[in-house]
Amino acid sequence: MTEATADTTEKRITVGTGASAREIAVLHRPAKKKAAGPALVWLGGYRSDMSGTKAMEIEALAGEMGLSAIRFDYSGHGASGGAFRDGTISRWLEEAIAVLDTIKPKRVVLIGSSMGGWIALRLVQELKRRKKAPKVDGIVLVAPAPDFTAELIEPHLTEAQRHSLSERGYFEEASEYSPEPNIYTRDLIEDGRRNLVMTGIIETGCPVHILQGMRDPDVPYQHALKLLEFLPADDVVVTLIRDGDHRLSRPQDIEKLKAAARNLIMNDQILG
Predict the structure, then answer these.
(1) Is 46 left (phi over 0), alpha (psi -120 to 50) or beta?
(2) DSSP letter, residue 66
(3) Which terminus of the chain, N or C, has less C-beta within 10 A?
(4) Longest C-alpha distance within the chain, in Å?
């Protein structure tokens, strides 16, 4: 297990059955007994894991405020089982739901980074369809990449990449963050079309704070502004960081992230 603190409970849960079963690694920091606020749920990005700087800082914030914190690795990521190439938005969303079903928080603030922003928005939609589900009190989106397969990958595919998808079922692309290339599969792209959120009004029913770097080479800041158009019914704050990159992991970026989460937690609509 990865980066557990003295106050953190380590869990492994099995999601799926038969050939699709995979073991998901979860870290849960329980709230202090009298804490009335929501659990902070970290939803990481594509090929990221729960031991990253932002995830750890969110858990630290929960500790400062006496709140519960939930981190986990998607299948094929970090300490979880399963093959990365089997990963799709639907599969990773199923795992996020299973984690909440296991921990059973009554209220949550979702913090989604990059692809985790897409998972967060889909998670809100799925939770609304369930009779027994935690109430989503707020959402923080860091360099959010909803619909990235359709919006940011498919339009820019080269002929060689299209051929590779057709013949091999995947293509590879050099990564700025790892010596290993990024792998995008045909299943991921086709499943992405079934999980698009920027097709109509997204009703989260809670305040949303978007943090976006304007020097992000992976998710252009215009993508965050486009997302804003699909959130007309919500109280949305967008913070554009002029010199910010995609990771937004510098000390000054972390402070903005923690301030955004803290403000949502302290919002009168949440604790009142």
Answers:
(1) beta
(2) T
(3) C
(4) 58
Specify whether the CB–CB gap between 79 and 73 falls below 8 A: yes
| CA atoms 214, 73, 151, 135: torsion sign | negative
Angstrom distances, CA of residue 12 to CA of 15, 24, 59, 63, 99: 10, 5, 19, 22, 10
In tens digits, what is the pLDDT along the chain, a chain of 272 residues? Answer: 344 455 789 999 999 999 999 999 999 999 987 767 899 999 999 999 999 999 999 999 999 999 999 999 999 999 999 999 999 999 999 999 999 999 999 999 999 999 999 999 999 999 999 989 999 999 999 999 999 999 999 999 999 999 999 999 999 998 887 888 899 999 999 999 999 999 999 999 999 999 999 999 999 999 999 999 999 987 999 999 999 999 999 999 999 999 999 999 987 444 44
CB 8 within 8 A of CB 29: yes
Please report which residue ranges of the chain form alpha helices under DSSP H. Answer: 53-65, 89-103, 115-128, 148, 159-168, 186-193, 221-229, 251-266, 268-271
Distance between CA 82 and CA 22 in Å, rounded?
5
- CA 31 from centroid of its chain's CA atoms: 21
